[in-house]
Amino acid sequence: KPQTRRAAEDSTRLYGEAAQHRMRLSEDCYTLTPTLPPLCRGGENSRVLTTMYLLIDAGNSRIKWLYGNAVPGIVEAASYKEDWRTKLWRAWHLLPEPRRIAISCVNNASIETEVAAIVDDLWGKPLQTFIAQKETNHTLTVAYSEAHTLGADRYLAMLGARGLTHEPLCVVGCGTAITLDVVERDGQHIGGLILPGIRLAENALLQNTQKLRPMRWTPNLLGTDTASCIGAGIHHAIPAGINSIMDELETTTGHYYHRFAFGGDAQILFGNRPDYRIEPDLMFRGMIDRLATD
Q1: pLDDT digits (tens, 9 = 90+) for 42-54
Q2: pTM greater than 0.85
Q3: Annotated active-site residue in 153, 265, 281, 289
Q4: Helix, strand, coil share (%) of the chain residues, nearest 5
């Protein structure tokens, strides 16, 4: 009976500690507390998968991450419009300790700072930042005279594409902005362009023109009312413009460019164009290739 009573007391105590722990999580779910299990603090069990990376893509509208060492993999995301810090902590705090943790950030520097704080709390490890460099392991040579000013997303996407082919290629990023970068067979990046993405283009029309309605997507080349006309203009003009530039470049150079597209709107803009290969994980592929060269 004393043993039974002690077991019941222990069970009650553990239940109370678990309840207190849950309360602390609800109050501040990305600050570690002393009652977190050893796994969350990088204990013995957390080092089972020592080759795993935690790769983070902090874009303009959302933050995405991949836990693994290869692509394709499971990519999770959180919008900045929601409580993204809470979502990150809940998703990461039971992960085995990653071998390396690295981020590409094209957003405000404060986003990177907050992610670094979460990483430090969870594992006490540094957060590596991807920055474009002029030469990368004889694979890619950036056209910019100041290579570090090239967006990390564009740089990593080119590295990822170079891992898929060493033939001439172009990479189209389809996010908040549309980006195009072109790389020759020898790895020389010859340049690129940037233009507004789908939502930026729509917002520019709605904010600066009277009596327009939000766009409505249409598979037709031409719309039959104002909303579908805006949708047709944006959805079809963007890929048509990219195609026109690449066709002209191919005429000038005399060779074909393999065409890759990535980003949240890649499927919408280029999914029905057979010349383009949709690669959702292209940036993460570039991250893995870059870490392999360090």
Answers
A1: 444 444 445 899 9
A2: no
A3: 153
A4: 45, 20, 35
